[in-house]
Amino acid sequence: MKTRLTLAMLVVLPLLQVVQGQEQQLAHIGDLRLDSGEMISDCVIGYRTFGKLNKYKSNAILFPTAFGWRSAALTSRIGQGKLIDADKYFVILVDSLANGVSSSPSNSKSQPGVEFPEFSIRDMVSSEQQLLLGTLHLRHLRAVMGFSMGGMQAFQWAVSYPGFMDKAVSIVASPQLTAYDLLLWHSSLLALESDPDWKKGHYTSQPGLHLLNMLQTLTLYTPRYLVSHNPRADYQKFESEQAQGPDDLDANDTLRQIQALLSTDVGASFGGSLQAAAATVRSQMLVIVSKQDHVVNPQPAADFARMLHAQLLELDSDCGHRAHTCEMKRIGEAVADFLEK
Amino acid sequence: MKTRLTLAMLVVLPLLQVVQGQEQQLAHIGDLRLDSGEMISDCVIGYRTFGKLNKYKSNAILFPTAFGWRSAALTSRIGQGKLIDADKYFVILVDSLANGVSSSPSNSKSQPGVEFPEFSIRDMVSSEQQLLLGTLHLRHLRAVMGFSMGGMQAFQWAVSYPGFMDKAVSIVASPQLTAYDLLLWHSSLLALESDPDWKKGHYTSQPGLHLLNMLQTLTLYTPRYLVSHNPRADYQKFESEQAQGPDDLDANDTLRQIQALLSTDVGASFGGSLQAAAATVRSQMLVIVSKQDHVVNPQPAADFARMLHAQLLELDSDCGHRAHTCEMKRIGEAVADFLEK
User: Fold this and answer.
1) How far apart are CA A27 and CA A33, in angstroms?
2) Rounded to whole angstroms, how far apart are CA atoms A210 and A203?
3) Mutation site, A172, A185, A197, A211, interface B, largest B CB count within 10 A
4) Which residue of A has its CA nearest to B225?
5) Which among B174, B177, B178 is the top mutation candidate for probing chain A, defined by the most A β-carbons within 10 Å of its own β-carbon?
6) Contact B251, B226 (CB under 8 A)
């Protein structure tokens, strides 16, 4: 029995250690001063870690969540054949502001609901830097990576903190919204605010949320993909699934994240110039776009990559914006190659 | 002077004749029994004619309006280098039901506003047949042609009245909506009905209409086209123009036309089978689709064309659904060739 127990412990203990690291953790980073001059008081940032920090602290990768995502869901993107493998890296998944885990209209006691201030992609990045410096005691990253709103943050990290990381990876994201993106997100705002009860926050079955979810489904994939995966005969079931969306969505959280998306512009401090913003970047970048992306227009990311002479991977999947999932294996291989170089 | 007057009359009189023909005319076709069993009472159908009917009455072409269009706007599609030239043909532009000219929620005295019954694409086609038989005394057409909702009617004409026309031309339209189309139009309905005042009908600056117009702009062109034609710096102007839309739009008219679009299915009488519907078609067809069309998915039209062994022209314009305008010259040439054969 004694021998058996020891063997079991040898197997189980390291597993427990990994599992603990992957659990939701909350860092209290104090008041967060925003670009607007306002403040998120007693700001909390959620995160999870995977893998081990090496003794030189040179293998840390920051991976912030996309619009509407939580770090819990992002764990499915970690592993072999996924976006990033935690064998070599210490991966820090961060809950982006207003995702219902980090400080958000839905969970703030001092600034609840509509009292929670608007913030920008730059504020998200600033909150993450404070998490790294204050809680994780990291002054340098191997890389920042992310898809969609997470990739917007990777662009902003590269511009805001040029020396902080060796590399940055942006997947189906943009450094600066185009007229198309602005039209989409302003439409999403109108859809959300069309709901007479949206200010109350938590809702699960109201028309404004239905419309917002349907608008997202319309653009997440290409029409060709939607048609080939959803028979006309099953439309009612399809619509009710799409309209429903995640049932823990809070309207005010969603609103603040949409407003953050609308702020996307690495050129904001440079008179709107992508070229000037690109000139500040010191990290190597891998930019991955999906040519048929109808959520994030791929043009500015491709332009920015060319300005940086960065590695640009243009996917042409009819999966559209969801290439971050449909093409995960291919993206993961490109990311692994890029990080090793 | 006498000679001059005679010369002037020779020039002016035929012109007057043409101009008179092009003017808005209204036909009273009596009560229109609908597929649903309901009725549009004292139904009025608006139309305009171009060119001359030949003595064999063999050159008449019916051209119904698209969603939200009136025959007045469609006149810009007639002429050399346009969709159809009236030199050889007697072109009858028809105002589709609920477009604010033909019987509509906005103009019906006996069935105003929400009292105006829902109707289908088949009902539009039936109203047009009554116009031809009762008012224009035409029992046969050279062709039915149309783009978008007009093209949906061309498909339905070919299936509902197989012997009535020699040819049918459908441009950026569909014989049967896909899950994508259904999602788009159900979203449009939700957008319209999100406006608390939509039942009152006429509105010019309300959020539901803004959202509906923005949704249309998002899908009318490809993202690439929108981005290349609208600089980010001009976004505010662009959005206010797109959100505004036509200022004479009536919410109930728009609602009924959206519901008609949602009924699009030439297979409705054939258990939903496109193949069975295709077997009834006797007219030759020209089917023109736009591969990057994000308003009307091109797949069912292409499938239907193949079932009919019909001529299929697949455009690949980044103008998307608006290919009916951007590619007007090319489409016009294909239509002219097809009609002459």
Assistant:
1) 16
2) 10
3) A211
4) A180
5) B178
6) no
Do B208 and A195 lie within an 8 Å CB cutoff?
no
> How far is the alpha carbon of A229 from chain B, nearest alpha carbon, in Å?
9
The residue in chain A having the minimum alpha-carbon distance to the alpha carbon of residue B271 is: A233
Nearest CB partner across the interface for A186, out of B190, B214, B224: B214
Residue B321 has which token pair? Answer: 């659904």
- Check if the beta carbon of residue B292 is closer than 8 Å to that of residue B317: yes
Decide if B50 contacts B86 (C-beta within 8 A): yes
pLDDT in tens, A239-283: 988 877 665 678 899 999 999 999 999 999 999 999 999 999 999
Q: Which residues of B touch A176 (CB under 8 A)?
A: 232
Question: Residue A53: phi, psi to the nearest 5?
Answer: -75, 130
Give me the residue from B208, B233, B294 closest to A194, CB to CB: B208
Task: Using an 8 Å CB-CB cutoff, list residues of chain B that contact chain A.
Answer: 176-180, 182-184, 186-187, 190-191, 193-196, 207-208, 210-211, 214-215, 217-219, 223-224, 226-227, 230-235, 238-239, 242, 272, 293-294, 297, 299
What is the Cα–Cα distance from A121 to A258, expressed in whole angstroms? 10
End-to-end CA gap in chain B: 47
Give the mean pLDDT of B63-92.
96
Print burial letters for A221-253: b (CB count within 10 Å at least 16), e (below 16): bbbbbbbeebebeebeebbeebbebeeebbbbb
Alpha carbon distance A108, B8 (integer Å): 82
> Which residues in chain A are contacts of B184 at CB distance < 8 A?
218
**Confidence (pLDDT) at B202:** 57
**Taking Cα atoms as reference points, which of A222, A227, A218 lies closest to residue B300?**
A227
Read off the pLDDT of residues B167-200 as tens digits, 9 standing for 90 and up.
999 999 999 999 999 999 999 999 988 877 766 7
CB contact under 8 Å between A182 and B232, yes or no, is yes
How far is the CA of B298 from the CAs of A224, B77, B222, in angstroms? Answer: 9, 22, 14
CA distances to A47, B172, B281, B313, B335 from B338, rounded to whole Å, are: 64, 16, 17, 11, 5
DSSP-assigned beta bridge partners for residue A317: none
Amino acid identity, position B272: G
Q: Minimal CA–CA distance to B250: which of B103, B33, B147, B121? A: B103
Cα radius of gyration (chain B): 20
- Quickly list H helices, chain B: 2-22, 71-74, 121-130, 149-160, 179-193, 207-220, 223-229, 235-244, 251-262, 274-280, 299-308, 323-326, 328-340
Indicate the residue of A219, A232, A299 with minimum beta-carbon distance to B178: A232
Rounded to a whole number of angstroms, the distance from the CA of A180 to the nearest CA of chain B is: 6
The dihedral over CA atoms of B160, B164, B167, B170, expressed in degrees to the nearest 10, equals -40
CB contacts, 8 Å: A239 with chain B: 182-183, 186
Average pLDDT across each block of 10 residues of chain A; the chain has 341 residues. List them in order. 45 45 94 98 98 96 97 95 95 98 96 96 98 98 98 98 98 98 95 77 65 93 97 94 74 94 98 97 98 98 98 97 97 97 90
Yes or no, beta carbons of A194 and B207 under 8 Å apart: yes
Task: Collapse the DSSP code of A269 into the 3-class scheme (helix H, G, I; strand E, B; otherwise coil) and give the result.
Answer: helix
Residue B300 near residue B274 (C-beta atoms within 8 A): yes
Write down the ipTM of this complex. Answer: 0.90
